[in-house]
TrEMBL record:
Organism this protein belongs to: Arachis hypogaea (Peanut)
Major localisation: nucleus
GO terms under biological process: chromosome organization; double-strand break repair via homologous recombination
Protein name in the entry: RecF/RecN/SMC N-terminal domain-containing protein
Pfam families, sorted: SMC_N (PF02463)
GO cellular component: nucleus; site of double-strand break; Smc5-Smc6 complex
Coiled coil: 217-244, 347-403, 657-684, 728-840
Keywords: ATP-binding, Chromosome, Coiled coil, DNA damage, DNA recombination, DNA repair, Nucleotide-binding, Nucleus
Cellular localisation: Chromosome; Nucleus
Domain RecF/RecN/SMC N-terminal: 30-1096
Length: 1109
């Protein structure tokens, strides 16, 4: 309705009434709304008051569309409005777009970005079939924002939650709320309206984040454990220093025992090295023999290559000479051909000239003859002659035009044939692509069926159902009963080869579905399906405790054909308890037609045929439908036969594609022939066009002469004198001179013809000679290529021989001779080592002392290996301890080995003893202790940091617990406050009531005590009240919630739908008093009479026009 109608219904009260002053609009209130092509409104505009607004009108006048528009304008989705599934469905029928224009007051302390928007914010929502947009404008209509984030920022600033039923209670929510007797639904309404839901969600998210932080701190605390372990190891190293010093003393005692043992060991090595040298020298003669053999082969092959290369060089020289001769002969041949063509052209020109001269001569002679004829023959005869010549030329033109027309028809026919051939090629290409696509599609089906062959579950849903089954097994404890599915996995089919495809048509839509036992399991399975990306999963709710149904015989179809139920078997009775006993299966269409339309047995629902038809008879109408999809059926026991058929079909499609390619090549050859013929016809067409043009020119010349002759006839008619003799004599002189010129031209023509024949003969001779030379050159090139292949073969053999020679020379130089040289050098080194060891051992211990068993503790009773082993064992202990504890102090500790020189070992042992003696007071030990202290300080610092983090997290956890307790305390006070406010509103009608909220069971129950009830029993279920009483009690509950929530405006649609007149009057007065007291903007939509509402500046009534029929 227009603004004027809304103002005409507003009543102004005197100043002494309770609503004396019209308040100003506050920030966030709705100032005006305008709708274009939205739902039932074509062009609608309405301005609202700043306090209480009543929108009145009959059903269907578009009242509820205003609330729907507000919800959509503030970002609500179409499904949440309960009016449409998509925004495009809200566009008025017959229109392509819709506009929602809402103006919001933006004044006062709570104004949203007043420096940008000004005192009014305009929200404009445009909806089209393909898209929708949001535009935020300032008070001047200038666009400021266009993103959904800008709208959300404004809505959050004004605390406008259109999804909260306390802000906008639509018609459907009102009816649902008034009718709902479910305590859980009331609790959800209360929990969301009081923002407890939002606070609870925030606390749960914070708790999860604190848990994650605890895990991170735990990981950090665990990361310093290796450092603590390293610190302990460092302490152990320091403690082990003294033990290393004691072992060094023991090593000093073994030093003398080892001194002469290495000297004797070197003597043994000298003997072994001498035998090794003799053995290596014996390999030289055999290796040299192999090298000599390879050298002989190389010489022989090089000689063969040299001979071949010489022969190839000679042949290449001959081939080059032949190519040069061919090149030289090619130019004379081209010149001869050019000369012959030029002479032929000159000859043709001369012939044409001679013919023209002959024609001219004949014409002159004819003129003389005409002049000598009788004078009686006047110019009429000349005119007749010209007419005859003109007729002859016209005849020639006509003949040429006929030939030209015939060529034109032939050209058109060839063009049509070419077009048909192109169309045929396109058709063949289209068929080839079709066959290839069919082949690819069949190959894809083969791969799918091969995958299904290995896993029966994957047949009924693919990878999605596998993922879903995994999730069901993972969360099986959350189900009351494990879901059953897919149903197809639990079914076995009798005579599957015959009926699998038919049963697939009958119940194929149910094979992928799952069965659950209650609604809770339904919601859980639906959530798991969404997680598995299984969006369209069909879920059936069925009580698993129901035993298998036994269907009486009289309820089954009275026919001998099998039903779907009779062919299915399952170990699970829940799967079998389906409504498939009335589906009958037959073998073909004719049988199904007789049963469905002629016999029509009782209890028959549908008939499915094996050849893909569905039949049923309902309401006297016979219906036959073709069924889509081909295949063996997913209940088939094996797909092998079907896969074989598919492979055969794929082979046929491939063969058809290859045959099409062959036909395409033939068609292309034929197309090229037609194009060649078309080119020839076009050339002939050009020749005939030239002839026609020439004849037309001659005809025009004769016509002009005819006209000149007719003019001369009038002059000759007056003349009677005879022909002047001077004209005849002049013609005779001209004829004589013309004959001389003609004879000269004929002589020149004969000379040209002779020269042309000579040039043509010369060109033919040169062509024959050129072809002969080219053939000789090709034969020579074949011989050269063959010789080159032989040469390359010999070169490969030579390469192998050189590789063999290089191998044996390398073996001689790099292995045999170096090994001998190395062995001799080692022998010399051992000799020198023996002398050096003996000399240095004498310094440590004279050789005669080795017989002194008392001083060396019986070293003659131990072999050098035993002494070395004992020393090695002790040195390994020292090295092991050094590696574990004193790596920094002794980085050069080396295990003794028999292959190492004695004096190297002796030096190492001395260095070891000296180093161990300095372990207690050396600088590296101090560095080690400093490193220990440094790491200890670092660990303590990190422990302190982690401890502080742990304390902060504990403080956060305690704060969260405190907030949780406060949340529970506030929730308790809110439910008490709700009960008190609810009872206050009920008292206005003389009713008392109580609201009980149970946060553990998520329930909210309302108890109402009616004044007329003598039993004083409270009504626990509001459905036990009358419609008006239930509506009023529910309204009181809603008003109590409104007092506990904040919003700049609120709206209620058909809140008084079930109230009687008395309850409506009390409810309206209660609502108006409440709204005025609260101070926010209210919008009430009702089809009922509101005359009982006392008017005032804060009350505005707007009447909607009656709906059009």
């Amino acid at each position: 309705m227009e603004e004027g109608m809304g103002e005409s219904m507003t009543r102004v009260c005197p100043p002494n009434l309770r609503y004396e002053q019209q308040p100003q609009h506050t920030a966030g209130t709705i100032k005006k709304i305008r709708l274009e092509n939205f739902m039932c409104h074509e062009n609608f505009e309405m301005e609202f008051g700043n306090a209480v607004n009543f929108v009145l009108g009959q059903n269907g006048s578009g009242k509820s569309a205003i609330l729907t528009a507000l919800c959509v304008a503030f970002g609500s989705r179409a499904k949440k409005t309960d009016r449409a599934n998509h925004l495009k469905d809200l566009i008025k029928k017959g229109c392509s777009n819709a506009v929602i224009h809402v103006e919001i007051q933006n004044e006062g302390e709570d104004a949203f970005k007043p420096e940008i928007y000004g005192d009014v914010i305009i929200v404009e929502r445009r909806i089209s079939v393909s898209a929708n947009s949001i535009i935020l404008k300032d008070h001047q209509g200038k666009r400021v924002g266009y993103r959904i984030a800008d709208l959300r920022e404004m809505v959050e600033h004004f605390n406008i939650d259109v999804d909260n039923p306390c802000v906008i209670m639509s018609q459907d929510k009102s009816r649902e709320f008034l009718h709902s007797g479910n305590d859980k639904d009331k609790f959800k309404f209360f929990y969301k309206a009081t923002l407890l839901q939002q606070v609870n969600d925030l606390l749960e998210n914070i708790s999860k984040e604190i848990g994650v932080a605890h895990g991170i701190v735990k990981d950090l605390e665990g990361s310093i454990k290796p450092v603590e372990k390293e610190l302990k190891e460092l302490q152990d190293k320091i403690k082990a220093m003294e033990h290393i010093e004691q072992m060094s003393v023991d090593i000093q005692k073994l030093k003398k025992k080892l001194a002469w043992s290495w000297v004797y060991d070197v003597d043994k090595n000298l003997q072994a090295q001498s035998a090794k040298i003799d053995k290596l020298k014996s390999r030289i003669p055999a290796c040299q023999a192999k090298i000599d053999q390879q050298l002989n082969d190389i010489v022989r092959l090089k000689e063969g290559i040299s001979e071949k290369k010489d022969a190839i060089a000679i042949m290449m020289e001959e081939y080059t000479q032949l190519n040069q001769i061919i090149t030289d002969q090619n130019q004379p041949l081209s010149l001869a051909r050019k000369e012959a063509l030029e002479l032929e052209h000159d000859c043709n020109s001369k012939t044409s000239k001679v013919q023209k001269m002959l024609q001219r001569l004949k014409k002159l002679e004819q003129e003389v003859q005409d002049l000598h004829e009788q004078h009686v023959k006047n110019t009429q005869a000349e005119k007749s002659d010209l007419e005859e010549k003109l007729k002859g030329l016209q005849h020639e033109v006509h003949t040429a035009e006929l030939d030209w027309g015939r060529l034109k028809e032939e050209e058109t026919k060839l063009m049509n044939n070419i077009n048909l051939q192109n169309e045929e090629i396109k058709t063949i290409v289209y068929k080839i692509r079709g066959h290839e696509n069919n082949c690819n599609e069949i190959s894809k089906q083969i791969r799918e069926y091969e995958q299904k062959q290995g896993n029966k579950i994957r047949v009924f849903g693919g990878e999605r159902v596998m993922h879903l089954i995994y999730l069901v097994e993972k969360y099986h404890q959350r189900f009351k009963m494990p879901p059953i599915g897919p149903i197809g996995v639990h079914l076995n089919l009798l005579d599957a080869k015959k009926w699998a495809a038919t049963v697939e048509h009958a119940i194929g839509g149910l094979l992928n579905s799952f069965i659950v036992t209650d609604h809770k399991d339904f919601l859980l399975l639906k959530q798991l399906a969404k997680e598995a990306n299984y969006r369209n999963l069909q879920i059936i709710i069925y009580d698993f405790s129901i035993p298998r149904l036994k269907i009486p015989q009289h309820m089954l179809p009275e026919t001998n054909h099998p039903s779907t139920l009779s062919l299915l078997q399952s170990e699970n009775h829940t799967v079998i308890n389906g409504n498939v006993e009335r589906q009958v299966l037959v073998k073909d269409y004719d049988t199904g037609k007789v049963v469905a339309f002629n016999q029509r047995p009782r209890n028959l629902k549908e008939i499915y045929t094996a050849d893909g038809k569905k039949m049923f008879y309902r309401g006297g109408v016979e219906t036959t439908l073709p069924l889509k999809g081909k295949g063996p059926g997913r209940l088939c026991s094996s797909f092998e036969d079907y896969i074989k058929d598919l492979r055969s079909k794929a082979s046929d499609e491939q063969n058809a594609a290859n045959e099409g390619k062959s036909r395409k090549r033939q068609a292309e050859i034929k197309l090229r022939e037609l194009e060649s013929n078309l080119t020839s016809v076009k050339a002939r067409h050009c020749i005939y066009c030239t002839i026609v043009r020439h004849c037309e020119n001659v005809g025009r010349s004769l016509s002009s002469k005819k006209l000149a002759l007719e003019e001369a006839m009038h002059q000759h008619a007056a003349e009677n004198s005879s022909i002047p003799s001077s004209s005849v004599e002049e013609l005779d002189v001209e004829i004589t001179e013309f004959k001389k010129k003609l004879e000269e031209e004929q002589i020149l023509l004969e000379a040209l013809r002779q020269r042309k024949d000579e040039a043509s003969g010369k060109a033919k001779d040169l062509k024959v000679k050129f072809d002969k030379l080219r053939g000789s050159a090709e034969d020579k090139f074949t011989v050269i290529e063959k010789a080159g292949n032989q040469c390359r073969k010999i070169e490969s053999e030579l390469e192998l021989a050189e590789q063999g020679k290089a191998h044996y020379e390398n073996l001689m130089e790099n292995k045999v001779l170096p090994a001998i040289k190395k062995a001799e050098e080692e022998y010399q080194e051992l000799t020198k080592m023996r002398e050096e060891y003996a000399k240095k051992a004498s310094i440590i211990c004279p050789e005669n002392e080795i017989n002194d068993c008392d001083s060396l503790e019986g070293c003659d009773m131990k072999t050098p290996d035993q002494i070395s082993a004992e020393l090695k064992e002790l040195s390994q202990k020292v090295e092991h301890e050094c590696r574990r504890h004193v790596v920094i102090i002794l980085p050069h500790v080396i295990i003794l080995q028999p292959s190492r020189s004695f004096w190297q070992d002796l030096f190492i042992f001395s260095f070891l003893i000296f180093s161990c003696s300095l372990c207690r007071h050396s600088e590296p030990i101090a560095d080690l202790r400093m490193l220990y202290e440094k790491k200890q300080r670092k660990i303590m610092k990190r422990q302190k940091v982690y401890k502080a983090l742990r304390q902060k997290l504990d403080a956060c956890q305690r704060a969260l617990e405190i907030r949780g307790k406060k949340f529970k305390s506030n929730a308790t006070r809110l439910k008490q406050q709700l009960s008190w406010k609810f009872n206050d509103h009920l008292r206005k009608k003389g009713i008392s009531g109580l609201i009980k909220v149970n946060y553990e069971e998520n329930t909210l129950s309302i108890e109402v005590q009616m004044p007329q009830d003598a039993s004083n029993r409270a009504v626990r279920d509001t459905r036990g009240l009358s419609g008006g009483e239930r509506s009023f009690s529910t309204l009181c509950f809603a008003l109590a919630l409104h007092e506990m929530s904040e919003s700049p405006f609120r709206a209620m649609d058909e809140f008084d739908v079930f109230m009687d007149a008395v309850s409506r009057k009390i409810s309206l007065e209660t609502l108006v008093d409440f709204c005025v007291a609260q101070g926010s903007q209210w919008l009430f939509i009702t089809p009922h009479d509101t005359s009982t509402v006392k008017p005032g500046p804060k009350v505005k009534k707007m009447q909607m026009l009656a709906p059009r029929s």
